[in-house]
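Quick one:
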Amino acid sequence: MFRVVPKATYLPDPALGQVLREIRERESKQSQEHVGFNAGVTAATIGRMEMATSKPEWGTVRAVADALGVSLVELATAIEEVEGKR
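Output:
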């Protein structure tokens, strides 16, 4: 007999959104439009990621990190710092 396992629910990550916005505004000083263009997504996508109203795919996170000029390690470290302050 098979057992039904509930599908994991992944919610948008507010720490990711906070870090993306901080890097974009404070370090790279780019608009959402500029980051989106360089990442191959729309400014609205960047806005949804920053507001934690979307669950971006891994490739999108990588592209946005590249557009912001940060490595995934730097991004993950900053997210962990934000989560540790909560």
